[in-house]
Amino acid sequence: MANPKHSTLLSKLASELGVHSIVHSSPDTKILCLQRFIRLFAYGTSTLILVLYLSSLGISNGRIGLFMTLTLLGDVMISFLLTMFADGVGRRRILGAGGGLMAMSGIVFMLSGHYWVLVGASILGVISPSGNEIGPFRAIEESTLAQLEPSANRNDIFAWYGLIGTAGTATGTIICGWLVEELQRLNGWTPNRAYRVMFGVYAFLGLVKMCLSFLLTKNCEHIPPNKHEHPDSSEMNTLEAETLLSSDEASSPPPSPKPRKPLPASISKSPFSLSLTFPTIRPSTIPILLKLCLLFSLDSLASGLIPASWITYFFTRKFSLPASTLGTLFFTTALLSALSNLLACPLAKRIGLLRTMVFTHLPSALFLALVPLPSDRFLAMTFLALRACTQSMDQAPRQAFLAGAVGEGERTAVMGVVNVVKTGSQSVGMGASGGLAGGGVLWVAFLVAGGLKAGYDLGMLWLFLGARGRGSEEDEDEEGGEERG
Question: Nearest 5 degrees, angle CA 292-CA 293-CA 296?
């Protein structure tokens, strides 16, 4: 017979870590999380070898930096168009098309070694030079998750969404590292040939992701707010109003989610139907959006200076690490990052989303600046691992914060604009990293990136401490109308 105390403790732990939220989430939510795992697995395989592959083709460091910049600038344009019209065209349609673009890019990289052909494939397709999200996927998925799940569960869902993606990156990097090394041991196999095989794997994973998009239901599609009330609109007063910034020492437990209403037949369109509508962003949202874009651009510029592909290059050139060791290193850092995502859930419930974002992200910025300083590779790897311990703890609170700061009907468009700004800033950083690597001073990128990320953290605290979620304002107006009625 189970000990009641142990059962209660395990139940409380599961609640704190958001296990109940993800287990009882909708099937669509689970499919979106599986899609993210497969996508980030593919990104992990390509990121570990991307710079090494381009270098094996005889491409200079400066042109590699240009390649990454052009890749991200192309992604800015495509992502902006797709996310702005995703709600009208159909979210499932866009996610499926993105999987097809991943497959196309992988096939081109597997078959061609021409610089400008690869640039074209990376611009028009989907190749992640940083190991992080690229393309319209994340903005669409996060907007969909915010629609599918009640607001009280969003931080938990976003935490697991982030953890599952980071676990995909970790698995992809370690499998890629060991597989590349094993392939190179075969008679007559060059590193370049082994890298091409991994891009074939990348193309296959893109096709798998595309097929998964067709399993999503009509519940993932946007419901026009001017025609039908969102099934969850009456709940937008829990997390968004009370846990954006404040601790919940004095807050009451969130109300139980209300049953979802079935979607109206008028929006039950198939994944292949087409309806172009231009999204609107309310004037009251624009000041918030501008502040977020300014701060996120600093963080993304820093991320662009030291993406995983350039970190791989740095450790390879400075410490002569083999592919298997690099794969193990990035698997370890990604695993630490994934586990830390779960710790963000109970922390955000106690000190609020904003404080969780800042107080966990700031130490990682300091450790990042320390990575290039040691001459001993184990100490440098230790700093990288310490950075990973808190590097991703801000992601789930940040997305829950963003989802609560804007209204339901504008979420996809706002998240798309934010992602475009972040990607554009990353492209500037990657171009600068290519120049620094060409000059033999790539270590400077680590120092500058650490400073920029610290500035982002302090800026978030300064500009948003004391703010309230958009959801709370809408619900107060709605409740007031009910009372007056």
Answer: 80
